[in-house]
Amino acid sequence: MSQLKAFPKGFLWGGATAANQCEGAYDADGRGLANVDVVPIGEDREAIITGKKKMFDFEEGYFYPAKKSIDMYHHFKEDIALFGEMGFKTYRLSIGWTRIFPKGDELEPNEAGLQFYEDLFKECHKHGIEPLVTITHFDCPMHLIKEYGGWRNRKMLVFYERLCRTLFTRFKGLVKYWLTFNEINMILHAPFMGAGLYFEAGENQDLVKYQAAHHELVASAIATKLAHEIDPENKVGCMLAAGQYYPNTCHPRDVWEGLQEDRENYFFIDVQSRGEYPNYAKKKWEKLGLELEMTEEDLTLLKKHTVDFISFSYYSSRVASGEPDVKDKTQGNIFASIKNPYLDASEWGWQIDPLGLRITLNTIWDRYQKPMFIVENGLGAVDQPDENGYVEDDYRIDYLREHIKAMNDAINIDGVDLMGYTTWGCIDLVSAGTGEMKKRYGFIYVDRDNQGNGTLRRSKKKSFDWYKRVIASNGTEL
């Protein structure tokens, strides 16, 4: 084992999941239908999450993995006990909006949904785990999509504010770390999943996406304002799908393209962290002929209620080229990138770049000077369990070890301010991108396959005890 300098005192080690990828129980105790429920596994999945194919309900001939997922709704005590055994300091999870407001526009919440999360948070505290709660992790009630068009509609601000007020009031003292929208920049890449957007023929898709983005950004500012008013102890973060863009060559055209790509990602965080729209975004809208509807009150909210910290997912770096003929692509977190010949890749083509995490941390720190939180990082892989469900996942340990070393360097050599680290899919769950179960990230194996078969039995992988030692040593034993 390599010996490293300890992470800061109070560093929040843990793991992350999302309600729609692990809870299942899609219609239990009054829960309503959400966009994330009606996305099937298979070849139509990408067209649906990007808003190109309409699927507003379950249809014959498709399998919908989120319906049951790993049924954490009925297994959360067992699962949280395992997280506690690993020594988690924090557990990042998300709220299923339709558990609280089944249709989204009701005036009164669903008590059964609130009670479920109250029980879950109390279970976390029983094991010494601080919940880190994402208010919206791609969830949008289907009623709000059918009736109002999802986040394209300004009325969403009222419904989201009601959700936030309900959560902050009910869970005061149980939750103090909140994230407003998961990977908010995904609205540009997977708009149905990110904002409930389906595009009709002839619509100006750029206008719809950026108008919806404005509504989400204002909603995030409203949530931040409310959180601080209801409980001054609350800390609110934004969240982006991060990963630095490298120029494909040192040709200035490639360097410029990398800068443009980075700006598209950081646009949302520029607003949430700095409180105003950057000039480059205004110029882009001007060039595209986009006139967004926004009020002076909106701009005041954005300016006054910036986030307390910046959280992000990091799986890989990306490559940009200004040369149209460069087309050698590799897969990534929803959006593909040009292949980097200097990096290895996972079984799904996601390139592995631990130094890229250090670069990304430094870039975000230099840009904003606000505390950071890595809330997703991990390796999706096919695991081969033995008859007891045990997996020798040294490949996962190697991946995480190198990324934790990069974090250590960023903190102890570069001086960035990092609050915590939650690995993605600490227990096996349904993949957001592909809908697969066989693409596993967890320290805990769940007996379920891509078609929903299996006992749902939980078993520890080799990485379980490894991560337990990492946390116990505060990152010095890897």
UniProtKB/TrEMBL annotation:
<dbReference type="InterPro" id="IPR018120">
    <property type="entry name" value="Glyco_hydro_1_AS"/>
</dbReference>
<dbReference type="InterPro" id="IPR001360">
    <property type="entry name" value="Glyco_hydro_1"/>
</dbReference>
<feature type="active site" description="Nucleophile">
    <location>
        <position position="376"/>
    </location>
</feature>
<dbReference type="GO" id="GO:0005829">
    <property type="term" value="C:cytosol"/>
</dbReference>
<dbReference type="GO" id="GO:0008706">
    <property type="term" value="F:6-phospho-beta-glucosidase activity"/>
</dbReference>
<dbReference type="InterPro" id="IPR017853">
    <property type="entry name" value="GH"/>
</dbReference>
<comment type="similarity">
    <text>Belongs to the glycosyl hydrolase 1 family.</text>
</comment>
<dbReference type="InterPro" id="IPR033132">
    <property type="entry name" value="GH_1_N_CS"/>
</dbReference>
<keyword id="KW-0378">Hydrolase</keyword>
<keyword id="KW-0326">Glycosidase</keyword>
<dbReference type="Pfam" id="PF00232">
    <property type="entry name" value="Glyco_hydro_1"/>
</dbReference>
<protein>
    <submittedName>
        <fullName>Glycoside hydrolase family 1</fullName>
        <ecNumber>3.2.1.21</ecNumber>
        <ecNumber>3.2.1.86</ecNumber>
    </submittedName>
</protein>
<dbReference type="GO" id="GO:0016052">
    <property type="term" value="P:carbohydrate catabolic process"/>
</dbReference>
